[in-house]
Design goal:
By secondary structure, this protein is mainly α. About 65% of the residues lie in helices and about 0% in strands.
């Protein structure tokens, strides 16, 4: 007996598409906050960047403490008491005159900001107690150079010797190292003496602090001299500038044509040092020298940007060092703090940009 044909089973319904997870505003805010905190942690993970951060914050707080009113005026206190006694409903700060309330609040914040700035300055001094360890390799290299015999004028096989380094730059580097060493030793001795760790009399500590500040001033001005020498010895900028690439490309193409070089085939890789970025399509494919020239110009622009940041920072430190070395000073308190903000802020901005690129923020 034949069996009845089995009816086909119904196909299962298609599975619904996966739901896209959308971040809520709170999750998005938490993600951004985590990224910023991670960025800050990466920024202060090195001693140099931590010192830049503390320096910028400390000088900013010192500047704010100098421009804010130190104490509320007597008339303002009397006016506030009169207002609060006449009408208890005016006890809330929102009902007080805005200028009166703001002045009273700022007057109380100024001394607290000054105390916090002093604490940050002391923290930076503690972190610099180990500064001699970072200076020791440079000191050892300089001493070995001074003690080693001079190099022969030519190599043994008769080839010309390497060009000698610039005498002025070398001398400035050695003087900067000497000034930095004197500053670090004097600061450590004076600071530990002030804390009672080292038995140094007060008069001697005062002389050590003066020598420390003078060494700091010497280092800053030697650094400015070194930067001026670096600018004097810098090569001339590359003639490839915006608006001249077409003319340069055309001139290079004509030179290759005059030499019988085919423009259809690219130049051998042994003649031009190309990288991965040069393999991308260029604006002028007939000029394979252009990417190399642009890279050189970009490298020079990066070197100039670094030179400019160092110049601005040391130019801002220069009047500060003169102020602390002169008996009667040179600047008032707000200008001293403002110079410190500029000097340290320039380096902090670059450190923030560098760590942003590394973190991928």
């Amino acid at each position: 007996m034949a069996s009845a044909p089995s009816s086909p089973l119904p196909s299962p319904p298609p599975s619904p598409p996966p739901l896209k997870r959308t971040n809520t505003p709170s999750q998005s805010y938490l993600s951004k906050t985590t990224a910023h905190i991670t960025h800050i942690n990466r920024l202060i993970s090195t001693t140099a960047n931590l010192d830049l951060t503390l320096s910028t914050i400390g000088y900013t707080l010192a500047f704010l403490s100098t421009i804010l009113p130190s104490a509320p005026a007597t008339s303002s206190l009397r006016a506030r008491k009169a207002i609060t006694i006449r009408s208890p409903k005016l006890m809330s700060p929102l009902h007080l005159p805005s200028l009166l309330y703001l002045r009273a609040r700022l007057a109380g914040a100024a001394p607290r900001l000054k105390i916090l700035s002093s604490l940050i300055s002391e923290t930076r001094t503690i972190l610099r107690l180990f500064g001699l360890l970072s200076l020791f390799p440079a000191i050892a290299t300089t001493l070995s150079t001074l003690l080693s015999p001079p190099d022969p004028p030519s190599s043994p096989n008769g080839a010309p010797a390497k060009p000698a380094p610039d005498t002025v730059s070398t001398t400035l580097s050695k003087l900067k190292l000497l000034a930095a060493t004197i500053f670090q030793v004097c600061e450590n001795l004076a600071f530990l003496g002030d804390k009672g760790i080292l038995p140094i009399p007060e008069k001697r500590r005062s002389r050590i602090w003066k020598l420390c500040l003078r060494a700091w001033a010497a280092y800053v001005f030697l650094e400015l001299g070194s930067l001026a020498r670096q600018y004097h010895l810098a090569p001339q900028p590359c003639p490839i500038v915006k608006g001249q690439e077409a003319q340069t490309a055309e001139r290079l193409r004509k030179n290759r044509l005059s030499k019988g070089t085919s423009t259809a085939s690219p130049a051998p890789s042994s003649e031009i040092n190309t990288s991965e970025e040069d393999k991308a399509p260029q604006r002028f494919p007939l000029a394979p020298e252009m990417p190399l020239l642009r890279r050189r110009e970009h490298a020079r622009s990066e070197e100039y940007a670094l030179w400019l940041r160092k110049t601005i920072s040391n130019a801002a430190y220069a009047p500060m060092t003169l102020h602390y070395t002169l008996p009667n000073g040179l600047l008032n308190a707000p200008l001293v703090s403002l110079c410190g903000v500029v000097a340290s802020g320039v380096g902090l901005v670059e450190a923030w940009r560098t760590t942003t690129v590394e973190d991928g923020d």
